[in-house]
């Protein structure tokens, strides 16, 4: 809080109290503003603003159906969301094994030691190691 002084050297308590009162009133107004519920118009405006990008995306997604490419579009979406991720992860797995076969084979060896029953199909790994040799 600022201290105010009169011309005769005394403290100006009236100005100090007025400043304190103004600060309290400002805090009270801020509290009231935060507590206030939004009006119906403000809510409707917020809903409208939020709906604009959703509408834009909806219009873009509806274009293929509007111009007769619906079936191809559905197949493209199906492949985009289901086929492409599977292809990507299987491809990454295969390329990772191809790039670092020793790491994969060490892991596989440890796995077979812990789970002897899994060794019944180690022929696939043996064939794979032949493929990995330069």
Overview of the molecule:
The chain is mainly alpha-helical. 78% of the residues lie in helices and 0% in strands. The protein has helices spanning 13-35, 40-66, 70-99, 101-114, 123-132. The N and C termini lie far apart (82 Å). The model has no long low-confidence stretch (mean pLDDT 85).
Name its key features.
134 residues; mainly alpha; 5 helices; elongated
**Mean pLDDT value:** 85
Tally of individual helices: 5
Classify the helix fraction into a percent range.
over 70%
- The N- to C-terminal Cα distance equals 82 Å
- Major β-sheet profile: none
Structural class: mainly alpha
The shape is elongated
Oligomeric nature of the chains = single chain
Give Rg in angstroms. 36 Å
| Secondary-structure element order, N to C | HHHHH
Number of E strands: 0
Uncertain spans: none
Strand content: under 5%
What are the SSEs and their pairings?
Layout: H1 13-35, H2 40-66, H3 70-99, H4 101-114, H5 123-132
Helix pairs in contact: 3-4
Structure described in brief:
By secondary structure, the chain is mostly helical. It has helices spanning 13-35, 40-66, 70-99, 101-114, 123-132. It is built from five helices and no strands.
């Amino acid at each position: 809080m600022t201290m105010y002084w009169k011309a005769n050297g005394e403290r100006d308590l009236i100005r100090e109290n007025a400043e304190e009162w103004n600060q309290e009133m400002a805090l009270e107004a801020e509290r009231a503003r935060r507590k206030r519920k939004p009006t119906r118009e403000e809510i409707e405006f917020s809903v409208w603003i939020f709906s604009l990008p959703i509408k834009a995306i909806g219009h873009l997604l509806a274009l293929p159906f509007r111009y007769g490419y619906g079936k191809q579009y559905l197949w493209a979406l199906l492949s985009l969301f289901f086929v492409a991720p599977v292809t990507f992860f299987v491809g990454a797995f295969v390329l990772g094994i191809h790039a670092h076969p020793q790491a994969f084979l060490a892991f596989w060896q440890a796995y077979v030691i812990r789970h002897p029953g899994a060794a019944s199909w180690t022929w696939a790994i043996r064939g794979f190691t032949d493929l990995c040799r330069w």
